Structure formats: structure tokens, C-alpha cells
Automatic annotation (TrEMBL):
Pfam families associated with the record: STAS
Chain intervals with Polar residues compositional bias: 1-19
CDD domains: STAS_anti-anti-sigma_factors (cd07043)
Span list, region Disordered: 1-23
Domain STAS: 28-136
The protein, known as: Anti-sigma factor antagonist
Molecular-function GO terms, alphabetical: anti-sigma factor antagonist activity
PANTHER family: ANTI-SIGMA FACTOR ANTAGONIST TM_1081-RELATED-RELATED, ANTI-SIGMA-F FACTOR ANTAGONIST RSFB
Domain of life per record: Bacteria
Gene3D superfamilies recorded: STAS domain
InterPro entries: Anti-sigma_ant, STAS_dom, STAS_dom_sf
Organism: Prauserella flavalba
Length: 140
């Protein structure tokens, strides 16, 4: 049965997997901390000036090497410049800390700003969760 922790996250522990969720300013993050060391986070809603700092904080709090991260962004309805900044910072962090990560994105809402800014060429972007998980696990 899920329980609410003091930081506003909901946690449960089925079969060596910890699941958390966070709602902030029109954005929701649902994450599974998998037994293979990969954190699979489904982000939905709007990633804008209000919610992007929450995404940044969540990543800092929940993901650290040697774990890997897959961000499923297909549930996003809006990706603003503040959200792009968080992704760009994650790219830099992955190089400095050797963090394994990938993005799942098929919607134009996410792909268009990534492509327009040139960030898509710098980030590991995949069309499906299994493909992204495989790339992160293969980086071991």
C-alpha cells in the first residue's frame, strides 16, 4: 500500500522496486526505481518556469551515478525554455558524473523545441521506453 513521505512523495516497495510520484505546478513525475539500477520517470503536464525547478530538484534528489535515468517525456503537454535548461544541465551532468540517461520522446511538443535548439543532437533521444532502457543498461 502506498504511503506519503514528508517530502510529498508517495512510495511503495513491490519486488525490489521503489515507486515515487510528485505533483508540482501542473507537472507530475511518476518514477520507478528499478532493481537493475535504472530510474524510469514518466513526466506529464507542463514543464515551464514554475515546474522546471521541481524537475531539477527531483533529478538531483533521486538520481545519482551509478544509477541510470530514463525520462519518458511523452506525457508532456508543454516544454518551455526552463524545461529545456533542465535537460541541457542533465546533459552536462551526465558527462561530468558519467550518469547514464536517455529521453523517450515521440511528440512534437517535446521534439520540436529539442530540434529547434539543437539539443536533440546532444541528447540520447529514443522513440520507445524499451529502446531507451536498453541504451542505459548497455552503457554499463
Amino acid at each position: 500500500m502506498p504511503s506519503t513521505e514528508p517530502n510529498g512523495l508517495t512510495a511503495q516497495s513491490p519486488a525490489n522496486t521503489r515507486t515515487t510520484s510528485r505533483d508540482a505546478h501542473g507537472m507530475r513525475i511518476e518514477a520507478s526505481h528499478r532493481e537493475d539500477g535504472v530510474v524510469l520517470a514518466r513526466v506529464s503536464g507542463e514543464v515551464d518556469l514554475l515546474s522546471a525547478p521541481e524537475l531539477r530538484k527531483w533529478i538531483q534528489d533521486e538520481v545519482s551515478p551509478p544509477s541510470g535515468l530514463v525520462l519518458d517525456l511523452d506525457g508532456i503537454g508543454f516544454l518551455g525554455s526552463a524545461g529545456l535548461s533542465v535537460l541541457a544541465e542533465l546533459t552536462e551532468r551526465s558527462l561530468g558524473e558519467r550518469l547514464r540517461w536517455a529521453i523517450v520522446a515521440t511528440s512534437r511538443v517535446v521534439l520540436r523545441p529539442l530540434e529547434a535548439t539543437g539539443l536533440a543532437a546532444q541528447m540520447p533521444v529514443y522513440a520507445g521506453i524499451e529502446e531507451a532502457l536498453g541504451s542505459v543498461r548497455a552503457a554499463d
